[in-house]
């Protein structure tokens, strides 16, 4: 099967209605998008490499989902509404079954967010998936990393650490197997779900973007809560205090030794939850917004004038923790 | 050196003024672009894989140039003005010298087109470069592949075939070496230049986009003149006749045997010239536009009602030629 036929069969979807903002989709030199009058365009790109971001042999349907999810999550963190995305795909071979499943996972999520595939590129090469997503938002509505203010509340959507725990179980980490047993992934299917099919928080992000008078900074958690919070603190020249007792802890994580539980909660990675700051006056509005979009949101701490990140226990004593983000060019 | 430090050092350029349309660049969850009022966004993405699109060990500065050039060329073919681009880069290792040269080639071209790098992603993996470029244009100004009309003139910018000849010489093709000698690449530096540093025709494309009353379809030549013209013919449900005697032939190509010269001219690939159609009434305007932007443009044939592509010699006799585009999932 040729490249053009492969694209046509799996990625051109005759009969699927496209949003009005998509003026022209796949098949020309460029796609054409018509943003709403006066709006800005938000753009983000992520590249997923086999063996680095996902295991060889991972379920292609889950991979299609995740490749788009991590990009939608960036739009959510900015408060932008999805307009469309491009997909560039390097494949070792044109495997029909693999492509069919990948496209299924990809389009199920794309359709749920009214975010059409507008263009792309396919080539032969080591498996590599590069998605660029575009969204729109009103000028001034972006939740930038540098906008946190001392005195802000610190909020987290959902909960952290399950994706990391699933990763450790798949890798066969002794401590994870000892705590949860060899059949942990079978008994806790939600762990693998969190790793392989993260839920981008675009409903929440879009609503928070409307509250930008009171909601200040936001980031999506890809490299771990502490590490990603560090980006907000650095960009905003502030510090933060996290109240450990307030952090939601998934059932499976409650069975871990404390050190590993902390590592998963605070430096887990692959969470794709939103971390954001807001003036205390916005508490009721944020509760209402969380309710409206059905996404749990927890106030986990506050932004401080004093720089650095402190994690404190229920009695206010500092908890020692080595904050570390995931860096693709350091470590193993 | 860590990932963030690597990005900062080579891809964040303090002190380089950005166009006003770039509201926010590298360093947040998304970049923000402000298109001109009422304009549409044109988007295109291309993925370049080592060993497939370029030789291992190719000059990284040329590679940085080419990776962006092939994307800018898609904007040119649509008649869109560049707004900015994202870069996703998988690298086997963080090689300072390589990155420095790659960034130099990339930014030299980006600056020449006022097309800033607005965001990106870096990861470890087999060398892979994925660029997504965004541009803007007025509604109705896009030169779409399906807009060619019977009776249109067919135009080509620059000339075709030199990139292909350079590729064959680098591969050591017998016929190329026999015709041009073993030192051909040294004696014809323009050949390698055309392969490794193609010139995207954005000046011309932008001006043609303004003439869309008379300029109809356009495409940029990446897979060979005949193959890419085929996309216009199919999308427009028309045919075409190319007058072989009108095709500009580079000096090095004049020394090739006829069959190989035709192969290079008509199915060369990697030309990144514009092929476009326009009503005959536009001839003077097109000459003026070509002059204004300093890009040679040649009328090489015409669009016909009868389907299919015919290539004819100076006396109007059909020339037999097997049109074939380059397909990443067929052949070697």
How does this model look, in words?
The structure is a homodimer of 332-residue chains. By secondary structure, chain A is α+β, with helices and mostly antiparallel strands. Chain A has two domains: 3-137, 60s Ribosomal Protein L30, Chain: A, CATH 3.30.1330.10; 145-312, Phosphoribosyl-aminoimidazole Synthetase, Chain A, domain 2, CATH 3.90.650.10. Chain A is 36% helix and 24% strand. Chain A has helices spanning 3-11, 60-78, 96-112, 162-171, 174-180, 184-187, 189-196, 202-210, 225-236, 251-254, 258-267, 283-293, and strands at 22-24, 31-33, 40-49, 81-91, 117-124, 128-137, 153-157, 215-220, 239-243, 274-278, 297-304, 308-312. In chain A, the strands form three sheets. In chain A, strands 8-10-7-11-9-12 form a six-stranded mixed beta sheet, with helices on both faces. In chain A, helix 8 (202-210) packs antiparallel against helix 12. Chain A is globular, with a radius of gyration of 20 Å. The first copy, chain A, starts with a helix and ends in a 20-residue tail after the last strand.
Please summarize what this structure is.
The structure is a homodimer of 332-residue chains. Chain A is of the alpha+beta class.
Largest interface, C-beta closer than 8 angstroms, per-chain residues: A-B, 71 and 71 residues
- Computed CA radius of gyration of chain A, to the nearest angstrom: 20 Å
CATH level 1 name of the largest domain in chain A: Alpha Beta
Tally the helices of chain A: what do you get?
12
Mean pLDDT of chain A: 92
- Subunit arrangement of the protein: homodimer
Q: In the CATH scheme, what's the topology name of the largest domain in chain A? A: Phosphoribosyl-aminoimidazole Synthetase, Chain A, domain 2
Distance between the termini of chain A: 38 Å
**What is the strand tally of chain A?**
12
Number of domains of chain A: 2
Structural class of chain A: alpha+beta
What composes the largest sheet of chain A? 6 strands, mixed
User: Spatial order of the strands in the main sheet of chain A?
Assistant: 8-10-7-11-9-12
- Return the string of H and E elements of chain A: HEEEHEHEEEHHHHHEHEHHEHEE
Low-confidence stretches of chain A: 325-332
Percent helix of chain A, as a range, is: 25-40%
CATH superfamily of the largest domain in chain A: PurM-like C-terminal domain
Shape of chain A: globular
Strand fraction band of chain A? 15-25%
Architecture per CATH nomenclature, i.e. the level-2 architecture of the largest domain in chain A: Alpha-Beta Complex
């Amino acid at each position: 099967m040729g490249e053009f036929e492969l694209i046509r069969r799996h990625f051109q979807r005759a009969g699927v209605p496209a949003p009005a903002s998509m003026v022209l989709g796949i098949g020309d030199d460029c796609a054409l998008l018509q943003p709403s009058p006066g709006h800005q365009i938000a753009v983000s790109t992520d590249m997923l490499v086999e063996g680095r971001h996902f295991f060889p042999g991972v379920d292609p349907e889950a991979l299609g989902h995740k490749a788009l999810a991590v990009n939608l999550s960036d739009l959510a963190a900015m408060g932008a509404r999805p307009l469309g995305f491009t997909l560039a795909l390097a494949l070792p071979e044109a495997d029909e079954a693999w492509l069919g499943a990948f496209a299924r996972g990809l389009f199920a999520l794309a359709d749920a967010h009214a975010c059409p595939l507008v263009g792309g590129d396919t080539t032969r090469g080591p498996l590599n998936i590069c998605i660029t997503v575009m969204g729109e938002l009103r000028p001034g509505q972006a939740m930038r990393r540098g906008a946190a203010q001392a005195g802000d509340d610190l909020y987290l959507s959902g909960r952290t650490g399950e994706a990391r725990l699933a990763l450790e179980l798949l890798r066969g980490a002794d401590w994870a197997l000892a705590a949860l047993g060899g059949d942990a992934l079978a008994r806790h299917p939600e762990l693998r779900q969190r790793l392989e099919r993260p839920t981008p928080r675009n409903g929440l992000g879009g609503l928070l973007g409307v509250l930008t008078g009171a909601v200040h900074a936001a980031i999506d958690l890809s490299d771990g809560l502490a590490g990603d919070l560090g980006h907000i603190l650095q960009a905003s020249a502030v510090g933060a205090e996290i109240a450990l007792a307030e952090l939601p802890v998934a059932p499976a994580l409650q069975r871990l030794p404390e050190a590993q539980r902390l590592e998963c909660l605070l430096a887990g990675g692959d969470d794709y939850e939103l971390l954001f700051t807001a003036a205390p006056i916005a508490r009721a509005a944020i509760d209402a917004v969380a309710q409206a979009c059905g996404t749990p949101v927890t106030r986990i701490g506050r932004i401080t004038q004093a720089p650095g990140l402190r994690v404190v226990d229920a009695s206010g004593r500092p908890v020692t923790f080595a904050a570390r983000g995931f860096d693709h060019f350091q470590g193993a």
